[in-house]
Design goal:
heterodimer, A: 361 residues, alpha/beta, Rossmann fold, six-stranded mixed sheet, three-stranded antiparallel sheet, 10 helices, 12 strands, disordered N terminus, disordered C terminus, B: alpha/beta, 10 strands, elongated, cytoskeleton (chain A), cytoplasm (chain A), Septin3 (chain A), cell division (chain A), G_SEPTIN_dom (chain A)
Chain lengths: 361, 427
């Protein structure tokens, strides 16, 4: 019943923001931008960042530096124990922060124990599981009949992966982790404690890392395939030339040239965190927060989450098809706990195992 | 799964935190707005009103374009809806506007079913969105949202009260769409009548429990103006695309011998208020209400109707997928059963037919035997007869021979040789 669109342009003359415009060609459609902004400010934003890396690489400090407040777990826990946990733990802390009327619920997800053990095989699994669990929660809420007005978004938007500054190349652990996780979440690799590398070493290291990423087919954020148009590609190409960012974090201020700035004071000089000549923290901050935050959230929501959803829905289909007589009631999870709901795939690494199990049943 | 378990620290209550410097996420709303600009917006208006009441003209005036509508006849047998989509652009904002008009509303003799096509149309849009949402491979951000965001209900300027058709239709629609009633052709009502008319309309709506769209009051920047406007509902509008020169300007107006009704003059009609409320202030809220209230209601009803539920009798959450699969299993089992039944029936029938045919065959066989016997009997009888006949013939022959011999003997005994020769010549 609908006819094709016909382009009709009202003369776009109206510049006056408030209405009662006496120029009759002004309709006021562009006022919707203001309405959207108002709605966004009222609703607030949510951001979930995960930090992954060996202990001692400065993850918590970097988070504190990024958000200029004590958002990391160490700062929140009253008596931080410096032990390495026996198993990889996933700990998330949420804060409400506000800037110029924009409210944001920031969740920092920490992964103490990653890469710290002697045998680090499969250390990505709990992390994969956590990420998939968040997708699962969101999916469950979305397919509910009585669902909330605004589904609380606990999906991990961005995962910052800390590469130790060896100066040589990526370690097998790094490659494995990034390879598996780049398919489910946006990964932003950073070179931690970059003040141990000279500028030449840093450039060489970055180049090696980029080559290795390319060789292994690892697509880190910003992913090439999700560039929307030529402008996007241009901007993102520049960023892709610079990743991984070599960062230094600090939450202590020092006096330099009469100004108080964040930095690290050593005997041979003060490293200014926000000085582009010293380290690339400012680029990271701009990428993550000032320019690409919405894009990161969009890619998580519309691409990673949808991929998970497709896989999950197809999987339940296949699962039910292979068991025509069984009630979809009990299906043992990989770690042996019976569950009422069909269990989510554990991790990419064990997806095959899961399917084998279901066929054996 | 190797070495690791997942231990989760109980999530602390979210605490507010102060920032020690400028972080920069205040640009988030801008990032969001930029993305929306790239994507474009979508808005769908449904206009319900009698033929000739000025719907198309008002749309033209509102969006300052010529939507190329043509007048409809008054003799439509049924209410139909006509939807047209347009791409508008103002500064850097692209809007895909769909205007749906009713055709033939209020023209029929029997108006009992007039509202039905409208309700069906709205439901159909919800349904197609729901289908898209339930798909496995879906692309919601590319999806052209055709759900009706605002419904302008045109009230005839009778000056007395609402018609019963109006009440019935609005009552059916109020839980499905945001209704904004407008008084059409407001230049036929005087100011005092208008005031009374508006009060009458609002009180009738309230007493009949019709929930029209209220402009939202929760955002303080617009709460004040929205409250005022809420009190001025329904807006009395006049539409016109013709321009008349007033003073030294060309304005949109309607020219009468007794004066000029200026569309954008606030003391003449409420057109500017309508435009401001509909487009400039609350467009986003209309879209949001449609999605979060009306669409969710539709979705809930539809899914419950299909038999899904959120929790099963043991109070454990049941996923949609699970219920769907359970239903599918049920259906498949049912199908299997039916198939088996049919197969049984088929086998049965085949057996029956087979036995029937066997019987027939046997019968045929027995008849054949019978006939054969009959035939043999007949043959035997005939044989007998023939034998008898042969016997008779032979005995007759014998007797004749004997008689002849006797005669010959008797003749020779009498001695009449001439008679003998004559007799032998005769025989």
């Amino acid at each position: 019943m609908s006819e094709s669109a016909k382009p009709h342009h009202p003369s776009p003359q109206g510049k006056g923001e408030k209405t009662h415009a006496s120029d009759f060609s002004y309709v006021g459609i562009d006022a919707i931008l203001e309405q959207m902004r108002r709605k966004a400010m009222k609703q607030g934003f949510e951001l979930n960042i995960m930090v992954v890396g060996q202990s001692g690489l400065g993850k918590s400090t970097l988070m504190n530096t990024l958000f200029k407040s004590k958002v990391s777990r160490k700062s929140v826990q009253p008596n931080p124990e410096e032990r390495i946990p026996k198993t990889i733990e996933i700990k998330s802390i949420s804060h409400d922060i506000e800037e110029k009327g924009v409210r944001m619920k920031l969740t920092v997800i920490d992964t103490p124990g990653f890469g710290d053990h002697i045998n680090n095989e499969n250390c990505w699994q709990p992390i994969m599981k956590f990420i998939n669990d968040q997708y699962e929660t969101y999916l469950q809420e979305e397919i509910n009949i009585n669902r909330k007005k605004r589904i609380p978004d606990s999906r991990v938007h961005c995962c910052i992966y800390f590469i130790p500054p060896t100066g040589h190349c990526l370690r097998p652990l790094d490659v494995e982790f990034m390879r598996r996780l780049s398919k489910v979440v946006n990964i932003v690799p950073v070179i931690a404690k970059a003040d141990t590398l000279t500028l030449e070493e840093r450039d060489f290291f970055k180049q090696t890392i980029r080559e290795e990423l390319r060789a292994n087919g690892i697509d880190v954020y910003p992913q090439k395939e999700f560039d929307e148009d030529a402008d996007d590609r241009m901007i993102n190409d520049k960023i892709r030339e610079m990743i991984p960012f070599a960062v230094v974090g600090s939450d202590q201020e020092y006096q330099v040239n009469g100004k108080r700035i964040l930095g690290r004071k050593t005997k041979w000089g003060t490293i200014e965190v926000e000085n582009i000549g010293h380290c690339e923290f400012a680029y990271l901050r701009d990428l993550l927060i000032r320019t690409h935050m919405q894009n990161i959230k969009d890619i998580t929501g519309s691409i990673h989450y949808e991929t998970y959803r497709v896989r999950r829905l197809n999987e339940s289909n296949a699962h039910f098809k292979s068991q025509p007589s069984d009630q979809p009631a009990v299906q043992p999870k990989a770690n042996g706990q019976p569950e009422v709901k069909p269990s989510a795939p554990q991790a990419n690494g064990v997806a095959a195992k899961h399917e084998v199990m279901s066929h054996e049943m | 799964m190797a070495s690791s378990d997942v231990a989760r620290m109980p999530e602390k209550a979210v605490r507010p935190l102060g920032l020690a410097g400028h972080v920069g996420f205040d640009s988030l709303p801008d990032q969001l707005v930029n993305k929306s600009i790239c994507q474009g917006f979508c808005f769908n208006i449904l206009c319900i009103g009698e033929t000739g009441i000025g719907k198309s003209t008002l749309m033209d005036t509102l969006f300052n374009t010529n939507f190329e509508n043509f007048e409809s006849s008054h003799f439509e047998p049924q209410v139909k809806l006509r939807a047209q989509t347009y791409d508008l652009q103002e500064s850097n904002v692209r809007l895909r506007l769909t205007v749906v008009n009713t055709v033939g509303f209020g023209d029929q003799m029997n108006k009992q079913e007039s509202y039905q096509p409208v309700v069906d149309y709205i439901d159909k849009q919800f349904e197609s969105y729901l289908q898209e949402e339930l798909k496995i491979k879906r692309s919601l951000h590319n999806y052209h949202d055709s759900r009706v965001h605002a419904c302008l209900y045109f009230i005839s300027p009778s000056g007395h009260s609402l018609k019963s058709l109006d009440l019935v239709t609005m009552k059916k629609l109020d839980s499905k769409v945001n209704i904004i009633p407008v008084i059409a052709k407001a230049d036929t009502i005087s100011k005092s009548e208008l005031h009374k008319f508006k009060i009458k309309i609002m009180s009738e709506l309230v007493s009949n429990g019709v929930q029209i769209y209220q402009f939202p009051l929760d955002d303080e920047t617009v709460a004040k103006v929205n409250t005022t406007m809420n009190g001025l509902l329904p807006f009395a509008v006049v539409g016109s695309t013709e321009e008349v020169s007033v003073g030294n300007k060309m304005v949109k107006a309607r020219q009468y011998p007794w004066g000029v009704v200026q569309v954008e003059n606030e003391s003449h009609c409420d057109f500017v208020k309508l435009r401001e409320m509909l487009i400039c202030v609350n467009m986003e809220d209309l879209r949001e209400q449609t999605h979060t209230r009306h669409y969710e209601l539709y979705r809930r009803c539809k899914l419950e109707e299909m038999g899904f539920q959120d929790t099963n009798p043991e109070c454990k959450p049941v996923s949609l997928q699970q219920t769907y699969e359970a239903k599918r299993q049920e259906f498949l089992v049912e199908l299997q059963k039916r198939e088996d039944e049919m197969r049984q029936m088929f086998v049965q029938r085949v057996k029956e037919k087979e036995s029937e045919l066997k019987d027939a065959e046997r019968e045929l066989q027995s008849r054949f035997e019978q006939l054969k016997r009959l035939h043999a009997d007949e043959k035997a009888t005939l044989e007998d007869k023939r034998r008898n006949l042969d016997d008779d013939l032979s005995s007759f022959g014998k007797r004749r021979a004997a008689a002849q011999l006797l005669q010959a003997q008797s003749l020779t005994a009498n001695g009449k040789k001439d008679k003998d020769r004559k007799n032998s010549g005769f025989m």
